């Protein structure tokens, strides 16, 4: 069996510098690594090896001590999103109050007046008031503008009347609602004097803070078991004309006079601010779950040996090109996702800093970019977990491998906080607008979309002889050709008699999706490329550049149609790209283990028998099966005897 230590010693990279890129700085990387090491010493934060033999009730209750232990470890800095990194990486599943702390607290800080922040923030952080984010309804999810819950202003009492007018309007799916929350940040249609002023947010108490019983007019509970998020109490909530004070509508950007006059300011998208912060979390923290998958799969691939070579010696499965093909492009994509996520995170922070000053100029670009990255990244994490599981053969199916839980727990992220296809369509709408802007006012194009300033130059690019230096130009060419063709197709449909909405909904969906997704792949490449410039260690720079190129050629090979249709490349060029892909697999293989281990993951957080740091998959797998599996501690003799006595009826 190949020693993992031998593989590590052959690596030429500087892991500390790479960890610094991943976590934002070398100091931050050291802090995260130390946090994960400290976690291994604290019994309360460990996820029991027998966790997936337990009932959902027992799983839920087991999270109490773990969640509060994590909070203690981060000094209760629950309103600092950066602090989530350690707990999210180490925990096997979602934690109690995670949605509330990640969404309600930021929403209050962004949408609330200073008076409202003073009234609620401290209680929220100390979990005296535990609020859920009650937006999604039975009948509407991503279509926020069509939510049916109403908040009708009563001028006589200066109160809002919160009501659920139909079964479709029942709040359904909010995390922390089913059991834990005693307050809810409710999104409802604001009605004043019969006029609808759109969806606004309201702080509503739903349970007594002492007895935890539902208040009058409130029907609330848990929705039941799901795929993934087993310990998350996603809930249902109905209102029967529940009255709340006028003060309880978050009012920094919208207010109502006692007489019922409605005053708005700023960009309407600011009402989605907390969703944007949650998407930031999905973009920066959750993708590191893919590092867990790849750490397990790559370590196992170096230690697992199958079939002999021409010398009669068993090969490590990583030596087979098919195994490299499964895992190494995922590793390249992981770095592209994480490093571009860091760039996006800084842009989100800049946007909200400017919003606080009354500057909304970055809002549209930030919203669109978050939509596209959320869709691309969350799909990648789930897809990565599945391919890592497949790459580990039979052992990958066992929960003890650590891989099935990653797939299950992260699958909901594809849908929550904006269903991915809808998110791509949001970005595509922005891209089509930029296409139009490029023709009239190119100076107004945001920096993140600067390739739209060079459309003519990009459309004229041809590549007869492939070199890795051409990758960026080819990705740019694909994006611009795709969005240009989509724009032309839309004009043709409109000229053929369809109205713009019908053309969008019924004729352009796949073209819009493809254009948006390809733009995000291009964006990831650019961010990855720019981040490499920060590296000072020469050999590390070489390895990361090879990894970047592997990511780029993988994208080109997955969808070369726009390039071929527009004669940007030839069949000979495609062959050259394929040859370079195979060459890059060979270059990355000896460095793959050290690259993925730059994420500083501790064995306890991996929750695996087959991907531990010491490379002993069989010893741990057998030990857990024998000693950790509660099923082996039960006497089934009576059950077996009853089964033996069963006779089929003829």
Automatic annotation (TrEMBL):
GO aspect biological process, one term: fatty acid beta-oxidation using acyl-CoA oxidase
Signal peptide start-end: none
Swiss-Prot/TrEMBL catalytic activity: a 2,3-saturated acyl-CoA + O2 = a (2E)-enoyl-CoA + H2O2
Domain Acyl-CoA oxidase C-terminal: 469-634
Boundaries of every Acyl-CoA oxidase/dehydrogenase middle domain copy: 132-242
A GO CC annotation given for this chain: peroxisome
Protein name: Acyl-coenzyme A oxidase
Organism annotation: Paramecium pentaurelia
């Amino acid at each position: 069996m190949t020693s993992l230590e031998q593989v590590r010693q052959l690596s030429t990279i500087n892991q500390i510098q790479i960890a610094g890129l991943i976590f934002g700085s070398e100091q931050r990387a050291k802090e995260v690594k130390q946090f994960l090491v400290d976690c291994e010493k604290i019994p309360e934060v460990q996820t029991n090896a027998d966790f997936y033999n337990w009932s959902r009730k027992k799983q839920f209750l087991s999270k109490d001590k773990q969640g509060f232990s994590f909070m203690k470890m981060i000094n209760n800095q629950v309103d600092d999103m950066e602090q989530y990194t350690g707990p999210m990486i180490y925990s096997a599943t979602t934690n109690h109050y995670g949605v509330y702390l990640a969404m309600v607290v930021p929403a209050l800080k962004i949408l609330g007046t200073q008076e409202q922040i003073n009234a609620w923030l401290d209680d929220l952080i100390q979990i005296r008031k535990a609020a859920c984010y009650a937006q999604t309804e039975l009948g509407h999810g991503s279509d926020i503008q069509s939510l049916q819950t109403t908040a009708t202003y009563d001028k006589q009492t200066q109160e809002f009347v919160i009501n659920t007018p139909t079964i479709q309007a029942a709040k359904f799916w909010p995390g922390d609602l089913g059991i834990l929350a005693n307050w809810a940040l409710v999104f409802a249609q604001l009605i004043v004097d019969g006029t609808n002023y759109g969806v606004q947010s309201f702080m509503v108490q739903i349970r007594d803070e002492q007895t935890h019983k539902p208040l009058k007019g409130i029907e609330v509970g848990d929705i039941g078991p799901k795929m993934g998020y087993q310990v998350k109490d996603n809930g249902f909530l109905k209102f029967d004309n529940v009255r709340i004070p006028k003060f309880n509508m978050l009012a920094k950007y919208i207010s109502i006079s006692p007489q019922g006059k409605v005053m708005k300011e700023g960009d309407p998208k600011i009402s989605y601010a907390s969703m944007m912060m949650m998407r930031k979390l999905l973009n920066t923290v959750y993708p590191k779950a893919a590092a867990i998958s790849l750490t397990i799969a790559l370590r196992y691939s170096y230690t697992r040996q199958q079939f002999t070579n021409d010398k009669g010696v068993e090969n490590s499965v990583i030596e087979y090109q098919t195994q490299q093909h499964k895992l190494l492009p995922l590793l390249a994509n992981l770095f592209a996702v994480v490093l571009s996520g860091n760039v996006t995170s800084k842009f989100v922070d800049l946007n909200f800093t400017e919003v606080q000053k009354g500057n909304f100029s970055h809002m549209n670009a930030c919203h669109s970019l978050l939509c596209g990255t959320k869709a691309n990244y969350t799909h990648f994490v789930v897809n990565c977990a599945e391919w890592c599981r497949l790459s580990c053969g039979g052992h990958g199916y066992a929960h003890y491998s650590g891989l099935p839980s990653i797939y299950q727990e992260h699958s909901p992220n594809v849908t929550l906080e904006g269903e991915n296809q809808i998110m791509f369509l949001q970005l595509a709408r922005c891209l089509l607008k930029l296409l139009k802007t490029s023709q009239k006012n190119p100076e107004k194009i945001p920096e993140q979309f600067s390739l739209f300033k060079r459309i003519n130059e990009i459309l004229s690019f041809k590549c007869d002889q492939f070199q890795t230096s051409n990758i960026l130009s080819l990705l740019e060419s694909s994006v611009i050709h795709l969005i240009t063709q989509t724009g032309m197709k839309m004009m043709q449909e409109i000229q053929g008699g369809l109205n713009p909405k019908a053309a969008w909904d019924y004729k352009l969906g796949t073209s819009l999706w493809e254009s948006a997704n390809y733009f995000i792949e291009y964006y990831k490449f650019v961010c990855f490329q720019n981040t490499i410039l920060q590296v000072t260690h020469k050999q590390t720079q070489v390895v990361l550049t090879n990894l970047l190129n592997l990511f780029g050629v993988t994208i080109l090979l997955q969808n070369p149609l726009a390039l071929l249709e527009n004669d940007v490349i030839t069949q000979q060029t495609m062959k050259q790209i394929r040859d370079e892909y195979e060459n890059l697999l060979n270059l990355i293989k000896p460095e793959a283990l050290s690259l993925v281990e730059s994420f500083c993951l501790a064995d306890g957080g991996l929750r695996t028998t087959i991907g531990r740091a010491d490379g002993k998959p069989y010893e741990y797998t057998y030990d857990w099966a024998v000693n950790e599996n509660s099923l082996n501690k039960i006497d089934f003799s009576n059950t077996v005897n009853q089964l033996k006595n069963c006779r089929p009826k003829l």
